[in-house]
TrEMBL record:
Lineage of the species this protein comes from: Eukaryota, Fungi, Dikarya, Basidiomycota, Agaricomycotina
GO molecular function: acetyl-CoA carboxylase activity; ATP binding
Cellular component GO terms, alphabetical: mitochondrion
Record GO biological process: fatty acid biosynthetic process
PROSITE patterns: BC
Protein name in UniProt: Biotin carboxylation domain-containing protein
Alphabetized SUPFAM superfamilies for the sequence: Rudiment single hybrid motif (SSF51246)
Source species: Sistotremastrum suecicum HHB10207 ss-3
Pfam families in the record: ACCA_BT (PF21385)
Keywords associated with the record: ATP-binding, Ligase, Nucleotide-binding
Amino acid sequence: MAVALKELSIRGDFRTTVEYLIKLLETQVFADNNFTTGWLDTLIRNRLTAERPKVSFAVICGAVRKAHVVSEECWTEHKRIVDKGQVPAPDTLKTGFGVDFIYEGVRYSFTTARSSVTTWALYL
């Protein structure tokens, strides 16, 4: 089950409980089937947390994710217009996007460029 959850966390979004569940499943108490609700209460009281990714990794992933969402919205709009038999505006095919967000109280501003279906370039 832990392996399946690890696989899920790769495909899932940021900030889910999957990492926390993986940590619980990998404890020796859980593996030995010696857990109780009291054990869970102790973990909660001690604030057991899942490991967080490095800030640089989280920021890069966040920038690519936000740019990918905007890119997909543009592509969807482009297809919708073409399906109606109309000529879409050139900006529905753009590959460069500005991305701004705040992570852990720090503002990040990227310029992103999609160079292929699976490749993004990020510029600070």
